[in-house]
């Protein structure tokens, strides 16, 4: 499990409100510092500095594999974080890249260009004579309200089932023969969005785009799989004060599925005999990302730098640190 933290720049609204940038990034040391503004009982203002780095006497790796500030573009992020996953699927492995963070932290902006970059690399490798017997198949669906909908087939409801080997199967997919085919599919995959108190264009579902390498002969066999998962953002009750009932219900379902994901991380962390992957549709789909010797996962923790998002930013960093802590102990 590779854990990366990405900081977005202050947006226009935050600048208009004169919000301070409370997040400091040390990319070279893969460390972060959060300067949280606080008020004492006597109304005296002070700043509490939170440090996310490994203690000098500890021989374990740094808390995070990489820390990207607002100067790092999507191209640099892809080359360092996602490109190594492409080779994994040609060796019979499963690669997963998912973005986690609060609503409005830049998850969709981060994830949007990554699949097409990966598809371009996959086609360049498949074009080699030694891989002529492989073809790329693409599926794209969203998890909304605890149900799975096919984004490439008129949002028809999909059933997620397990095969005899307890592998999650989503049947509907399209064969792609060029990067142009992937671009058309990507453009057709419109997910559910809505306006909330925290974000004018908030994603209201978890979006999953899956690339599967299959053999061209009969029967077709899956050689490797690469998935891109754009999680819907978590929300506090304070952020939903002006939302309608439907939007609040969506937010509750999103938080419930993210909580189920955290419970699975905790169970893996404790080496529990039972991992509650069936706690939600999200964790059912993500099970392959965390189980198996050939599974490789990249988590991109997106954080907001504004002072009003300190609580969310700290929660995201602590969650990312917990995921990385599990990986360190496994090593």
Automatic annotation (TrEMBL):
PROSITE patterns: KINESIN_MOTOR_1, KINESIN_MOTOR_2. The keyword Cell membrane does not apply. Pfam families: Kinesin (PF00225). Gene3D superfamilies: Kinesin motor domain. It is found in: Cytoplasm, Cytoskeleton. PANTHER family: KINESIN-LIKE PROTEIN (PTHR47971:SF8), KINESIN-RELATED PROTEIN 6 (PTHR47971). Belongs to the TRAFAC class myosin-kinesin ATPase superfamily. Kinesin family. KIN-13 subfamily. This is Kinesin-like protein. It comes from Chlorella variabilis (Green alga). The lineage of its organism: Eukaryota, Viridiplantae, Chlorophyta, core chlorophytes, Trebouxiophyceae.
